[in-house]
Design goal:
Blueprint: E1 2-3, E2 10-11, H1 37-53, H2 73-85, E3 92-95, E4 99-102, E5 108-112, E6 116-120, E7 123-128, H3 141-155, E8 159-163, E9 170-187, H4 193-204, E10 209-216, E11 232-233
Helix pairs in contact: 1-2, 3-4
């Protein structure tokens, strides 16, 4: 854990900035140009622990056994927003936030719910759609990315409206003209190399969609004693 100099409150170890006051945390060198790879290491380690714990029941009992793990996607979204917050000092990060765009008559013409919406002031800078892997949609994912690219081109510069999930306050904003649709994928496993290459080729020339595979070679959801042994982190 790290301590915020201003708030004197402990923060998660992979945080670079305090998410409340924006101050640099103790124990982190003030070098904004260098990528601190250990932050991604700790994120991946935390995800592997989520996978491990997902096999247990909420209240553990030796005579109750789960056949299927709990979903960890929502927790992974929260943690990814924390990872981003460790680098972004001023931007607001809305997790699983639905937003809508209306035409001049007030009719809703578009709705979206990115896993993480990155905003600064009243501008939506980036949409982020976190995937654990692509095994469930391997044959359709290339087309999905092309559709998102076309969508981003259409909605850039448009006004949108959303609500604060806690206070229900209405938030009005603008989709930035450079806004992109980012797709971080936790693992490139659970998909054959042919389909994986086809997806990468499909996305490579898209202007407003980017895809990132955070780990390779071995899925984090494995039954090894050391879950990260054999996992390659793609910095």
């Amino acid at each position: 854990m790290k301590i915020c100099n201003s708030c004197r409150v402990e923060r998660l170890s992979f945080m670079k900035y305090c998410y409340e006051c924006g101050q640099l945390l103790e124990g982190v060198e003030n070098n904004y140009d260098d990528v601190e790879y250990d932050l991604l290491d700790e994120y991946i380690m935390t995800i592997s622990k989520l996978y491990l714990n997902a096999r247990e029941t909420v209240y553990r009992h030796k005579r109750i056994l789960r056949g299927e793990s709990h979903s960890i996607s929502s927790q992974s979204e929260d943690l990814f927003a924390l990872l981003l917050a460790s680098y972004l000092k001023e931007e607001l990060l809305y997790v699983n936030q639905q937003l809508s765009i209306a035409d001049e008559s007030g009719s809703i013409i578009f709705k979206s719910k990115p896993d993480v919406l990155v905003m600064k002031d009243d501008r939506a800078l980036n949409f982020i759609d976190l995937k654990m892997d692509l095994g469930y949609t391997r044959k359709k994912f290339g087309d999905f990315c092309i559709q998102k690219n076309d969508l981003m081109r259409k909605i850039q510069g448009q006004a949108f409206r959303t609500k604060n999930g806690k206070t229900k306050e209405v938030i009005d904003g603008i989709i930035d003209k450079q806004c992109k649709y980012h797709i971080p994928v936790i693992s490139d496993c659970n998909i054959d190399k042919k389909n994986l290459k086809a997806i990468i080729d499909a996305v490579e020339n898209l202007e407003f969609v980017e895809i990132y595979f955070l780990t390779s070679e071995k899925h984090l959801n494995n039954y090894s004693t050391d879950m990260l042994e054999g996992v390659k982190i793609n910095y």
